[in-house]
Amino acid sequence: MDKPVCLIDTGSDGKLCVQQAALQVLQQIQQPVVVVAVVGLYRTGKSFLMNRLAGKRTGFALSSNIKPKTEGIWMWCMPHPTKAGTTLVLLDTEGLEDVEKGDSKRDTYIFSLAVLLSSTLVYNSRGVIDNKAMEELQYVTELIEHIKVTPDEDADDCTAFAKFFPHFIWCLRDFTLELKLDGKDLTEDEYLEFALKLRPGTSKKVMMYNLPRECIRKFFPCRTCFTFPSPTTPEKRSILESLSPAELDPEFLEVTKRFCKFVFDRSEVKQLKGGHTVTGRVLGNLTKMYVDTISSGAVFCLENAVIAMAQIENEAATQEGLEVYQRGMEKLKSSFPLELEQVSSEHQRLSSMATQAFMARSFKDTDGKHLKALEVG
Ligand SMILES: Nc1nc2c(ncn2[C@@H]2O[C@H](COP(=O)(O)OP(=O)(O)OP(=O)(O)O)[C@@H](O)[C@H]2O)c(=O)[nH]1
Ligand SMILES: [Mg+2]
User: Fold this and answer.
1) pLDDT for res 225
2) What one-character DSSP code corresponds to residue 61?
3) Domain containing residue 68: CATH number
4) CA distance 78 to 3
5) Which of 78, 83, 230, 323 is the most exposed place for a label (fewest CB within 10 A)?
6) Are 205 and 160 found together in one domain?
7) Which residues neighbour 114 within 8 Å (Cβ) at sequence distance 6 or greater?
């Protein structure tokens, strides 16, 4: 893909809907995918940062005026720059808390989708991590109401999520603080941990203070922080896309380089609960399933997603196995008449090829239902 496409848009009914063209792109990707999604308040430089990950000056559209630019979720697929045989999928999301939209439910869905679809979640915000920044991350406290691990699970078990949630990177843009505490230098990660420290006590005020921090700590045990200075002078910010690297602040370039390297080195291939690898094709089906879940008003359930994906993939695997067998038999027919023995040994050979084709694609066919269907077929 030489440019991003819209993956999730707004339908004529005002609800989020998946774009068929993007699903078709994903259908063609048989490789495992590393998915990096960015979320955060509107007009905070998310799309610009994603273009840096893509190694391009332009791509995801930037907003140049007050009006927010990115709508829905946009996707850009490319060969992973360092992991051979893997596809990197970048997801750029629309800004949260846009006053014009004023739709907090939609914001929660966008945030939840980014969490559910990604292997690395980049949370982007301007300035420092203060109480205001924490309040803006209210979506993290709502995740528990919208996502379940198993259909019958006790709703309050935050820790169960941690195993299936993405690596969390907090990117602070236009960061101007000196990273020092009591005269000692702090790393960016130490700064994040300091900001996430809980306060002792049980008063309402303390609980309100602790809640978002507790959620981040429990949901995202793997966390990292990057602090970016402003990329350029205020007068040039609106023409950022047209600036060459030499015109950008060298410190901004250094942090960006470190950030990109970290994301490429440390982001894992996306996996489903139970450890099944997500390919582009599975990611497409997963996206569709989650967006359908939103339309139906149901809660996202990670285990149901695995069951649904297994059903889709195993049916396709059975079909693929059958096609291997049928193609072989058609070829054999053209050399008829043959000895019964020859037909029988060719049948054996093709059956085992069909099983191999099935095995390469199937997953979680624990009761062998789909393999049996292949044998019967
Ligand atoms: N001050 C500052 N401006 C930036 C930075 N990165 C990008 N911009 C500028 O901020 C404006 C918005 O950038 P985008 O990348 O479109 O921001 P966004 O968060 O994707 O915006 P929405 O999609 O509307 O939510 C553009 O004019 C950019 O040139 C940054 O690090 N600091
Ligand atoms: Mg944007």
Assistant:
1) 97
2) P
3) 3.40.50.300
4) 10
5) 323
6) yes
7) 37, 38, 39, 73, 91, 93, 121
From the alpha carbon of 63, which atom of ligand 1 is closest?
16
Q: How many CB atoms lie within 10 A of CB 242?
A: 10
For residue 299, how far is its CA from the centre of ligand 1 (angstroms)? 32
Structural domain that includes position 117 = 5-298
pLDDT (0 to 100) of residue 158: 65
**327 alpha carbon – ligand 2 mean position (Å):** 48
Answer yes or no: do 111 and 218 share one domain. Answer: yes
Give per-residue pLDDT as tens, 146-158: 888 887 766 556 6
Q: Are residues 168 and 122 in the same domain?
A: yes
In terms of domains, do 288 and 322 share one? no
Quick one: 339 and 291 in the same domain?
Answer: no
User: How far is the centre of ligand 2, averaged over its atoms, from the C-alpha of 374 (Å)?
Assistant: 46
Higher pLDDT, 201 or 145: 201
Looking at every residue in the chain, the average pLDDT score rounds to 89
237 touches ligand 1 (CB under 6 Å):
yes
Q: Whose alpha carbon is nearest atom 23 of ligand 1?
A: 70
Q: How far is CA 67 from CA 57, 99, 165, 241, 363, in A?
A: 21, 10, 31, 17, 45
- Cβ proximity of 127 and 41 under 8 Å: no
Ligand 1 mutation pick, 38, 48, 248, 254, max ligand atoms within 8 A of CB? 48
Q: Are residues 229 and 326 in the same domain?
A: no
Write down the pLDDT at residue 30.
92
